[in-house]
């Protein structure tokens, strides 16, 4: 986080984030109560959606004893802004160790803003097969949509001006759970 | 922190840092998976145009690049040495400036003149990918060789890699050595003294003129194609003699490590630098090199495209 030189401000930390994950998990459990566990899978969008997907799976296991499979999806090859960005994002691992055909796939991402990442994720995912349904879980919905995309499960809704970027740190990656905003340069 | 790729050209492994080489290899790992899926194509270079300009003829490298471009959804223009502009006397630079004026994004070039890609990279805004220039450099071949070694052996650091054959005229040998040394491998060049001069020791490789000594500790044996016309120029007395002293035969396998990899950039001369029993045997990874070449070229084109302004 100290890599950012510009102004930044912590928005949420620790328990607040755990509670938001519980909110999502509870809603998912309700939704899939009548579906067999093997018909549902979570796929985290790299990088921030991966720890979210794993935490949701853990929470579902603790609530119901159901084991939900978890995959990861990198969307770098599907972005619409190659050459528009200053730097190319690093390609991370795509690992979907199960057949997605006819399953209920819950995509997980940490911060939902324009919807462009989700658009890319939908294209990427459908190249792997034909899921029965795709739903979207976002820990933070910060508004600012550019595409007609909405999340089915939202941890927290916040309203943040377009001059800010909303980012996340995860215990699994950075040693701490925190949501913060960085002033765009 | 994320590694940031910033080069609009891939010219030679000599120019790349250790981290840049590793970044290409890591990126290629994910592209390899694309070719293993049902849908073997991603939209990463959609709307981009890539020109394949093979002034020196090539089949396998051109096909590999072309397929890599197709799997990235790029639009492709293929040109070769017979294109009328060269016949009419247009310079290489003028030809490419014309292509650039048509808003093409990347040129993949093979040229017999050493340094041709470097010259173009300086003069053009397009990305330039070197697909082999003279006896100088062939970076994607070296990257796919190193990728294959790392995939099979789990590491590059400390590996003993022996490259056998016509080192003097080989861009593959030079490129491999530059990359492998940066990643911490021990590189040996082996072959007849006429084709493996001692001068190569200056780039940090061991030079060995006895095959048995060279191969004793080898983890990887990379064989180069012996070009038949070299014999006419007197570099060695006959193909038969070359094969006897420097070819890899079933008997050779008795004194090399059981898990040593046998590699070859192709096309292979069966019965000259390698016998069929070895080329098709369990230690050979020659066809896996071909598979990995596609992934490496997809990674290179993706990174270069991302660095274009």
Sequence of strands across the biggest β-sheet of chain A:
3-2-4-5-6
Span from first to last CA of chain A?
16 Å
Task: Give the strand line-up of the largest sheet of chain B.
Answer: 1-5-4-2-3
Largest sheet of chain A: 5 strands, parallel
- The general outline of chain A is globular
Give the class of chain B from helix and strand content and strand pairing: alpha/beta
Write down the domain tally of chain A: 1
C-alpha-based Rg of chain B, rounded: 19 Å
Number of domains of chain B: 2
- Helix count of chain A equals 4
Overview of this protein structure:
The complex is a heterodimer of chains A (185) and B (309). Chain A contains four helices and eight strands, in the order βαβαββαβββαβ. In chain A, the strands form two sheets. Chain A has a five-stranded parallel beta sheet, with helices on both faces. Chain A is 26% helix and 28% strand. With 185 residues, chain A is of the alpha/beta class. The mean pLDDT of chain A is 92. The longest helix of chain A is centred in the first third of the chain and has 18 residues, at 15-32. With 309 residues, chain B is of the alpha/beta class. Chain B folds into two domains: 9-137 and 290-307, Rossmann fold; 139-285, Aspartate/ornithine carbamoyltransferase (Rossmann fold). Chain B is built from twelve helices and ten strands. Chain B has helices at 18-34, 60-71, 84-87, 92-101, 116-123, 139-153, 171-182, 211-215, 229-232, 239-246, 276-279, 286-307; strands spanning 9-10, 49-54, 75-80, 106-111, 127-133, 160-164, 186-190, 206-208, 220-223, 261-263. The relative contact order of chain B is 0.16. The interface between A and B is medium-sized, with 22 and 29 residues.
């Amino acid at each position: 986080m100290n890599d950012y030189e510009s102004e930044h401000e912590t928005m949420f930390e620790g328990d607040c984030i755990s509670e938001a994950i519980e909110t999502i998990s509870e809603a998912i459990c309700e939704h899939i109560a009548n579906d067999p566990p093997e018909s549902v899978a979570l796929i985290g969008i790299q990088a921030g959606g991966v720890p979210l997907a794993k935490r949701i799976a853990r929470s579902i296991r603790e609530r119901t004893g159901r084991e939900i499979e978890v995959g990861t999806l990198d969307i770098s090859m599907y972005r619409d802004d190659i050459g528009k960005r200053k730097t190319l994002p690093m390609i991370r691992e795509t690992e979907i160790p199960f057949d997605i055909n006819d399953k209920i796939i819950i995509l997980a991402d940490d911060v939902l803003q324009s919807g462009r990442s989700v658009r890319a994720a939908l294209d990427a995912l459908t190249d792997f097969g034909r899921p029965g349904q795709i739903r979207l879980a976002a820990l933070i919905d910060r508004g600012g949509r550019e595409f007609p995309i909405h999340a089915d499960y939202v941890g927290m809704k916040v309203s943040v001006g377009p001059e800010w970027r909303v980012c996340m740190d995860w215990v699994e990656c950075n040693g701490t759970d925190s949501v913060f905003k960085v002033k765009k340069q | 922190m994320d590694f940031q790729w910033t080069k609009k050209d891939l010219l030679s492994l000599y120019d790349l840092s250790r981290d840049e080489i590793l970044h290409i290899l890591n990126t290629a790992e994910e592209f390899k998976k694309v070719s293993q899926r049902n849908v073997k194509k991603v939209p990463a270079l959609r709307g981009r145009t890539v020109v394949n300009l093979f002034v020196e003829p090539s089949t396998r490298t051109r096909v590999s690049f072309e397929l890599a471009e197709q799997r990235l959804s790029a639009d492709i223009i293929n040109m070769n040495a017979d294109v009328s502009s060269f016949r009419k006397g247009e310079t290489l630079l003028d030809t490419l400036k014309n292509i650039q004026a048509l808003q093409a994004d990347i040129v993949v070039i093979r040229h017999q003149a050493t340094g041709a890609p470097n010259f173009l990279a300086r003069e053009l805004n397009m990305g330039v990918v070197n697909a082999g220039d003279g006896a100088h450099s062939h970076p994607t071949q070296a990257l796919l060789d190193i990728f294959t070694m790392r995939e099979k052996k789990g590491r590059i650091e400390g590996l003993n890699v022996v490259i056998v054959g016509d080192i003097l005229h080989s861009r593959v040998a030079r490129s491999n050595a530059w990359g492998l040394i940066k990643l911490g491998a021990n590189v040996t060049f082996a072959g007849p003294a006429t084709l493996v001069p001692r001068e190569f020791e200056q780039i940090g490789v061991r030079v060995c003129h006895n095959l048995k000594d060279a191969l004793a500790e080898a983890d990887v044996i990379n064989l180069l194609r012996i070009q038949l016309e070299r014999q006419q120029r007197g570099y060695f007395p006959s193909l038969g003699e070359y094969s006897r002293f420097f070819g890899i035969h079933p008997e050779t396998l008795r004194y090399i490590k059981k898990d040593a990899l046998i590699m070859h950039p192709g096309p292979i001369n069966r019965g000259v630098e390698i016998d069929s029993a070895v080329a098709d045997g369990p230690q050979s990874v020659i066809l896996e090199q071909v598979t990995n070449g596609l992934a490496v070229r997809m990674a290179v084109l993706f990174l270069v495209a991302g660095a274009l302004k």
